[in-house]
Backbone:
């Protein structure tokens, strides 16, 4: 069993324009394991990272001299939308995903927002438990159609 490091050797920072191509690659690698169960590529794989970076919406975790994870945060009316989170396969199980989620919660709090919202594909049901460990609750179940998502919310106090 691989060693799990609880204190990730990672540093968070806003993404820079030079990161865009690497972020697209990182998202593709991170979501590749889900390709067989999803009806189409996740939006994180097809996103325009240059545009998202220009909108100051992307934050990255650096570890071992490389980008190890990303999170895309978009403002809503009274909440922060967690649009995407991805961790490079070689950096998984080191706590980097949790570091990114905790950053989203603190970022929302710092912006005076009431919650962080996210969605998870029905086909990726195990992720609900992971989000649950960070205080996210499912607020709506999937409906019919192509993408069937659980909608999640974490109140920020």
Residues:
């Amino acid at each position: 069993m691989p060693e799990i490091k609880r204190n990730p050797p990672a540093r968070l920072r806003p993404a820079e324009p030079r990161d865009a191509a690497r972020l697209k690659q990182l998202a593709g690698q991170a979501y590749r394991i889900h390709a067989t169960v999803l009806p189409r590529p996740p939006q994180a794989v097809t996103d325009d990272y240059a545009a998202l970076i220009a909108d100051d919406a992307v934050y990255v975790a650096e570890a071992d001299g490389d980008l190890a994870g990303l999170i895309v945060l978009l403002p809503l009316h009274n909440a922060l939308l967690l649009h995407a989170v991805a961790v490079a396969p070689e950096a998984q199980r080191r706590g980097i995903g949790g570091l990114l989620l905790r950053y989203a919660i603190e970022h929302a709090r710092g912006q005076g927002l009431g919650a962080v919202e996210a969605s998870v594909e029905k086909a990726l049901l195990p992720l609900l438990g992971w989000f649950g460990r960070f205080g996210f609750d499912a607020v709506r179940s999937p409906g019919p159609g192509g993408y069937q998502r659980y909608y999640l919310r974490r109140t920020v106090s």
